[in-house]
Automatic annotation (TrEMBL):
Keyword Chaperone recorded: no
Domain of life: Bacteria
Single GO molecular function: glycosyltransferase activity
Matching Gene3D superfamilies: Glycogen Phosphorylase B
Keyword Transferase: yes
Protein name: Glycosyltransferase involved in cell wall biosynthesis
A Pfam family this chain is assigned to: Glyco_trans_1_4
Keyword terms, alphabetized: Transferase
Length: 387
C-alpha cells in the first residue's frame, strides 16, 4: 500500500502535539506500506531527520507575504488556511499523487486545497480540532476587529468541515469532536482516532513545589490560558505556598507570556529537552479556556508520572483520565485549591501521578489508537477504491 501524508509542517522533530500525532499516523501507515510526507520544513535537518525514519519526504520552505496570503485566500477559502497556500507545495503533492497511491491523509481541513480532484475517494481528513468551534470560542474572548476576524473564519471553517464529508474518511480525536463533526458535515464517515503516547520511563518524584505549564506559547488559546492562570490562580497559590514556583515552558512565548515573568514565574522559551522541566515539577497544569489543541502534553506529563490539574476544556477528549492522573477544576478558587493541596501533600501527588502512568500505558498507546484507522483504510482499499 502506498500512502501520502500532507501536513502543515513535516513532523520532525516531533516537538509539538500536532507533529507527534501526524508522525504516529504516518508510522502506522508505514507499517503496512510506503509513505510519502509532503509539508513545509524549517530547515534541512527536519527533512533529513524524517527521512532517516524511513519516509520519503517532499518538503518546501514556508514563505510569508501579503500577496501570497491573498492568493491563499482564494485557494484555501479561510483566513487561517490562507498562509499555508504555496504553489511549490501544491506541485510537490501533485507529483506525489502522480504515481499510483491508495490513501492520502490531509492533516487539518485547511489543507484540503492541496487535494487533487480525483483523490477524494481515497482521502482521509484528520481533524485534530473542530476548527470552526475553536475559532468561534476564541472569537468570544476577543473584541473589535479580532473578534470579527475569528467569527468570519469560524464560518469559513465550518464550510470546509462540511466539504470534508466528501472524503473516504474523517478522523476526530474524541467522541465529543466526532458528534460535533457528524452534526456539521451530515455524514457517517467520522472515525475516532484518539491522541495517545508512547510509553516513557516515569521520572522520580519531587517534593519541590514547582508547577509547570508546557505548551506552544505563541498559540492564542495557550497564551490566554497562561495569562489567566498566572494572573488569577497563581497569586492564590503563592499566598498559601510562598516558596512555590511556576514554569511556563514552551516555544515562541508571546510578548504577553514573556511579560508574566517574575520572582516566582519562569518563562523558559524554547528548550532542548522537556524531561528536565518535568523532573523539576511536582505537577502540571492545563488551564485552557478555549478548546482545541492535541492535549498530548497531558499524556506526556502523565507518562512521566506528573499529575495534571486541568480545566474541563483542557482535558476535553481525555475525560477517561479524570480521576486517573487528572484533577479537574474550572474556576480560580477551585484550581488554586487543588494545586495547593497537591503541593502540600507530595505523597498524594505521587499516587495520582502513578495512576496516570498506568492509565496512559494501558489505554493510550499509539498502536491501539491507530488500529481502527488502519482497519478502515485496508477495508476500503480492499473493495477497490484505488483506481
Amino acid at each position: 500500500m502506498r500512502s501520502i501524508v500532507v501536513s502543515k509542517f513535516v513532523p520532525w522533530p516531533p516537538n509539538s502535539g500536532d507533529k507527534r500525532r501526524t508522525l504516529a499516523i504516518a508510522r502506522a501507515l508505514k507499517d503496512v506500506g510506503e509513505v510519502v510526507i509532503c509539508g513545509f520544513a524549517a530547515d534541512g535537518e527536519d527533512v533529513a531527520g524524517l527521512a532517516s525514519q524511513g519516509f520519503e519526504v517532499r518538503a518546501v520552505p514556508l514563505r510569508r507575504g501579503i500577496l501570497k496570503t491573498l492568493v491563499g485566500l482564494v485557494h484555501g477559502q479561510s483566513l487561517s488556511g490562507a498562509r499555508f497556500w504555496d504553489a511549490d507545495l501544491a506541485e510537490a503533492v501533485a507529483s506525489a499523487t502522480g504515481d499510483p497511491f491508495d490513501t492520502i491523509v490531509v492533516v487539518h481541513p485547511q489543507l484540503q486545497m492541496y487535494l487533487p480532484k480525483g483523490a477524494w475517494s481515497r482521502a482521509v481528513i484528520d481533524m485534530q480540532n473542530v476548527e470552526s468551534a475553536l475559532a468561534a470560542r476564541v472569537a468570544a474572548t476577543r473584541r473589535g476587529v479580532a473578534r470579527a476576524l475569528y467569527a468570519i473564519d469560524s464560518i469559513a471553517l465550518r464550510r470546509l468541515e462540511r466539504r470534508a464529508g466528501r472524503a473516504r474518511l474523517v478522523t476526530a480525536v474524541s467522541e465529543g469532536d466526532k458528534r460535533e463533526l457528524v452534526t456539521a458535515i451530515h455524514a457517517d464517515n467520522v472515525l475516532v482516532v484518539p491522541n495517545a503516547w508512547d510509553s516513557a520511563t516515569p521520572l522520580p518524584p519531587t517534593v519541590d513545589p514547582v508547577v509547570s505549564f508546557v505548551a506552544l506559547l505563541s498559540w492564542g488559546p495557550n497564551v490566554a490560558a497562561a495569562v489567566w492562570f498566572a494572573t488569577n490562580v497563581w497569586p492564590r497559590v503563592i499566598e498559601a505556598v510562598p516558596e512555590a514556583r511556576l514554569h511556563l515552558v514552551g516555544r515562541e512565548p508571546s510578548a504577553e507570556v514573556r511579560g508574566l515573568a517574575s520572582e516566582s514565574v519562569v518563562v523558559t522559551g524554547t528548550v532542548d529537552r522537556l524531561e528536565p522541566w518535568y523532573e523539576a515539577s511536582a505537577i502540571s497544569v492545563a488551564p485552557l479556556l478555549a478548546g482545541g489543541g492535541s492535549r498530548l502534553k497531558i499524556l506526556e506529563s502523565l507518562a512521566f508520572g506528573r499529575p495534571v490539574v486541568a480545566t474541563a476544556i483542557g482535558v476535553e477528549g481525555l475525560e477517561d483520565l479524570i480521576g486517573d492522573g487528572v484533577v479537574v477544576a474550572d474556576d480560580v478558587e477551585g484550581m488554586a485549591r487543588e494545586i495547593i493541596t497537591l503541593l502540600r501533600d507530595p505523597a498524594l501527588a505521587q499516587r495520582i501521578g502513578e495512576a496516570g502512568v498506568e492509565a496512559v500505558d494501558s489505554r493510550h498507546s499509539w498502536r491501539s489508537a491507530t488500529e481502527p484507522l488502519l482497519a478502515a483504510v485496508a477495508s476500503s482499499t480492499a473493495v477497490g477504491s484505488t483506481p
